[in-house]
């Protein structure tokens, strides 16, 4: 007769709680999942058109759908509409993925929704939990084991004096300009404080919203929003777009989703061991060199002294271009706690060099401040009794490492029946799944070496003393974490087809416990993604994202007809980002150029022109449209840019297109020259023939790296 099943209480039904529940159920535990909301998904439990507690429902993930997934549940099981799942799913799509995952793996009787745990304490049989049900009744039950999966990002952190500012919110609450500035002032400074992932993302989002407010078809032309957007960061950073080159050196790189480039196993010795602790100078310098080659921009100067310290990154398709065009003004330093009575905000310089003295920058006329200053995990632990908190060595003053947990933040050294899943800053889905497997293995009697927590203690001490060398993500070695935990439970990584070209990225589906149609489908799609990248599959997305912003331009016009002037045109072009004016498209720019035409006869004429550029991910199409006389509204179709994966002798990506425009035939040719992830120059050539036209127009666009 088999022994009775052990009972496990799991607090939280986000990705951490759901994968823990599924894993423990398959290991023959009786599982009960407590979730205070009315649905599963945690922060991802949002629907399109809603507001969301911690993020906008339309926020795309920073990593691809291959990484934002669990090993044995393919995205094809998720209904997100006729266009399918994009490479970087939106938050509401992730919520539907988690709901579908729960529907498949978690019995309804194991889920207690609208049940907020109010206390958890030790008892003779294990753990006694009390919770408040949907009917406001207080219930109590005992369990053999407890898993905390209630999230690390539980409460936004803002300075205590933030409420003294004219308008002050946390970045997780920002949705649009209308809710940020309900009284609609048309000028003034908006300040985003915080230089990590969320601060960079928020600044780019606000800049795009300002652009849309000024350049949408229904925008008031004579009443532009004259906002200055400042972004304050205490350290410099590299901006990485969502599509990166697999090799940053050639001007015709192969692009892949960011995670499939960064998490490349070919760059790590085998067996892979996780990195940890403070980052030494030599490793920091290598990290800076690697990121500098990939990044689309470095908006703040990075000194030799900075390169001795851990590098910081932000993930954004638009930030670098906004900074280059002046629509985001990066400022290095630390902001004062509040705006002065005159509306000024002081920023004190914050460099790591003895050769620079402290300077103060004053930002005038601040009308709103957005704090991207992180979260505290306090609410995720508040239900644990004081006795349990003391056994956990809880340090509430250390936001980044409030607990010292064993085996990659999974186990409490003095509480063997307690475990944590996803309780660290920036949890990866594969790591949460690996933690769940570790827990199931240990609680079913398996033994394995447990990494020492000394390195974690070193980082916590350094955080308290402001010692340099603390990485941006102290558990950021995704490859090392997954490989180490997989070895602990005897799980091997699935090898890719040897015919697949490098890189060799790590994704959750390569660490399955048993093969299934779902796993095989994910791996086939994954291998196809890597193979198709060589043919330029992700080039349209990379090109379109890079077009945004300001360009210097020079055009040569050569006409075969005497009535059409030949000459040169020089000036500036600007791709203004705005919300798509047709829901069939994912992204849209209003293109505007202005400059001087100098004819071969010596005449000089001021000239301007506008088009609309649109992009759709489903068919990877970039399309151009003419604009109506109002200069903003889309008129009729011009042509599509066809990316064919061909090269010229000069090793650049090329594209072409053709279109009959009334009686005139336009044949177009394009060249795109990259430097790392950034498009540095490109050429647009039109060959036009018609009853009254016979000319060639060749335009070169260029700009410096930020």
UniProtKB/TrEMBL annotation:
Keyword list, A-Z: FAD, Flavoprotein, Oxidoreductase
Signal peptide residues are none
Q: Which intervals of the chain form a coiled coil?
A: none
Domain spans labelled FAD/NAD(P)-binding: 7-209
Looking at the Swiss-Prot or TrEMBL record, what is one Pfam family this protein matches? Pyr_redox_2
Q: Which InterPro entries match?
A: DUF6314, FAD/NAD-bd_sf, FAD/NAD-binding_dom, FMO-like
Which residues are in the DUF6314 domain? Answer: 547-703
Top-level taxonomic group: Eukaryota
Name it.
Uncharacterized protein
